[in-house]
Design brief:
Layout: H1 3-31, H2 34-37, H3 42-64, H4 68-94, H5 103-130
């Protein structure tokens, strides 16, 4: 397997790992009424969750086909979810007292942040190798 194939395969694997953290985290957000903090109704939240999954799959399909746009989409999703975790959740985790369901909720967020950052870096390397 050449360097491009390894980098590309790693990008796909990390994108799937990001789903492992981000989709349960999305459910965690709903369980703890986070959308209500932004004035978003339950129905709109459910609709937006569906849109998120469609966008996620819409990136996965071209990524799995080896398309450059899929890699760019994966990089964007990694950066977006890492930043969202850092800006919204890390300040809450740092505060004294329990955070949502405890270590599991924290693990989802930390995993999402780390995977998102590593995915972005790997995706950028993958793009550079193909040029």
């Amino acid at each position: 397997m050449d360097q491009h194939s390894r980098s590309f395969t790693t990008t796909i694997a990390l994108y799937l790992v990001l789903a492992f953290f981000s989709i349960p985290h999305l459910i965690d957000d709903f369980l703890f009424d986070i959308p209500a903090d932004f004035g978003i109704s339950v129905h709109l939240s459910q609709f937006l969750a569906g849109v998120f999954i469609l966008i996620y799959l819409g990136i996965l399909i071209p990524l799995a086909k080896g398309k450059r746009g899929g890699v760019i989409g994966a990089i964007s999703m990694g950066i977006f979810l890492a930043l969202a975790g850092i800006l919204k959740h890390i300040p809450l985790i740092i505060k004294p007292g329990p955070y949502w369901s405890g270590w599991f909720s924290e693990g989802l967020i930390i995993g999402m942040i780390i995977t998102g950052i590593v995915l972005a870096i790997t995706g950028i390397i993958s793009l550079r190798i193909t040029n």
